[in-house]
Fold this sequence. Notes:
- The chain has 120 residues and is mainly beta.
- The chain has 2 helices and 5 strands.
- Helices cover 12% and strands 30% of the residues.
- It has a 5-stranded mixed beta barrel with strand order 1-2-3-5-4.
- The termini are far apart.
Amino acid sequence: MPKNKGKGGKNRKRGKNEADDEKRELIFKEDGQEYAQVLRMLGNGRCEAMCIDGTKRLCHIRGKMHKKVWIAAGDIVLVGLRDYQDDKADVILKYMSDEARLLKAYGELPENIKVGTKNT
């Protein structure tokens, strides 16, 4: 039988369950950032999102979030706009459904955005 030379298997890669569901501070957009709703996932760490300003952008999921924070169609995300490419953006943060409802209540998100549903 072959000797195990690794440091563990699938469960080690998963890591410990960092309790991400505890209350975190609500982060609002700054200049150079925009709220967006994910329209569809494209694979390879990319997604298509409709920004609040009405522009459809190709968004790249940053490496810190890639394979750690799962993003699905209909999610509200904060994207960083690129000053040299207007049709592309980078996903900075994914809002949980309760955080997205708070953003809508504060008037940051327009009323026509449906929070927590797939809007394609």
